[in-house]
Amino acid sequence: RAVVNLEREHVRGEIYMAGNSIVDALKEVFEWNLDPDRWKHQVLVTLHRRETWPHLPEIVKAIHTVNSKWPVLWPAHPNPIVQAAARESGAEVVEPLSHKKFVSAMRNSGVIITDSGGVVEEAQVLGIPTLVLREETDRPEWGELSLLTSLDRLPFQIDRVNKAITAQTQRPNWEGIGAGARIADLCRRWLHERRR
Question: Is the pTM of this model over 0.85?
Answer without folding.
Answer: no
